[in-house]
Amino acid sequence: MEVNKIPKYDLKKDNFLVKIYWKRVTLNTFKMLGDVKSKKILDFGCGDKFIKPFLKNVKYYGYDIDKEKTEINDYKKKKPDIFLSIHSLEYLGQEELELLFKHLCNIKCKRLVIALPTENILSTIILKILRRPSHRGRKSKLYQVKKILSKYYLINREKSVVTMTKIYDCYLK
């Protein structure tokens, strides 16, 4: 994917700052992904699949708990080369994360690119200014996800986006 062609969000209700933020998250995620030609990608928590049109020449599997949005019923039946998740894993509990990462390790998924929200004073203030939902509803914090992830994967690179998101490029140990 060309890095300068980032997805256009349907954020009509959101202000321009939210749009800029999501474009930065997406741009940095795609930079982290790099060349993915001919790869199988599992987009975990795909939602509206805004990334799919921009992943050319890949086998894309979009999984979401919302049955109207998912393309596959059971992500465990797929064997992706790359596991991608943008702002979704924090909604899983620690036991669910453990099972997920263990499963990915067992099927030899070699690479994970994960974007997670941070929880710091600046992100809390920015969320209030933007009138966005707070950190409520999240079952796991960033440090908890990283702790479980590090049992199975090595974090190769890390990128911070506006102090509100951390993007990790991880490889199987």
Quick check: average pLDDT? Answer: 86
Biggest beta sheet summary: 6 strands, mixed
Q: What letter string, H or E per element, gives the SSE order? A: HEEEHEHHEE
The value of Rg in angstroms is 15 Å
Note the gap between the termini.
Answer: 27 Å
- Which sequence of strands runs across the widest sheet? 2-1-3-4-6-5
- The coarse silhouette is globular
Structural class by helix and strand composition = alpha/beta
Number of helical stretches of at least 4 residues: 4
How much helical structure, as a percent, in the residues?
25-40%
Low-confidence stretches: 1-10
Taken as a percent bin, the fraction of beta residues is 15-25%
Number of strands: 6
How does this structure look, described?
It is a single chain. By secondary structure, the chain is an alpha/beta fold. Helix 2 runs parallel beside helix 4. Helix content is 28%, strand content 23%. Strands 2-1-3-4-6-5 form a 6-stranded mixed β-sheet. The N terminus is likely disordered. It has a domain of 121 residues.
In short:
By secondary structure, this protein is of the alpha/beta class.
Describe the structure using short key phrases.
28% helix; 173 residues; disordered N terminus; alpha/beta
Strand and helix map with partners:
Layout: H1 16-33, E1 40-44, E2 59-63, E3 82-86, H2 94-106, E4 111-117, H3 121-129, H4 142-149, E5 153-161, E6 165-172
Parallel strand pairs: 1-2, 1-3, 3-4
Antiparallel strand pairs: 4-6, 5-6
Helix pairs in contact: 2-4
